[in-house]
Amino acid sequence: MIKVGDTLPAATLMEYVEVEGNGCSIGPNPVDVAQATAGKTVALFALPGAFTPTCSAKHVPGYVENHDALKAAGVDEIWCVSVNDAFVMGAWAREQKTGTKVRMLGDGSGDFSKATGLTLDLTSRGMGVRSNRYSMLVKDGKVATLNVEGPGKFEVSDAATLLAQAQG
Asked: Which of 31, 36, 50, 55 does the annotation list as catalytic?
């Protein structure tokens, strides 16, 4: 499992972009993790699935609400990663009204999640292998803090916890 001090694994996530701009075409666009985190502080949180109850009611809204405070604490970008495709993540972004506050990144095949060692096997629930619920503060591609939830928990990966760590 990835730990504090480690570099994020080489991976490509996918982001659905609603409008053209900044060299991005409309539709799914690749996000090279190493390039996208270079020289930046990223508040990254991951969760088992788009449109799931805790993720939709608490996890994503907390980061949207704390966007300005996280920015003030030195965070350049907020990323939400889930083992879903870019189209699902784009639809969820619209539903959650993340706008430009949270980048909704699909890890469709779970390659990033597997490479971090932070997977959750939900095969018995019909969801396959997903990402565990966690948050991390990433500075220039390296893990500065890591908060991994226990099974079925939502206690340490919330926006308030990561905000306190970013401020500290």
From this structure: 55
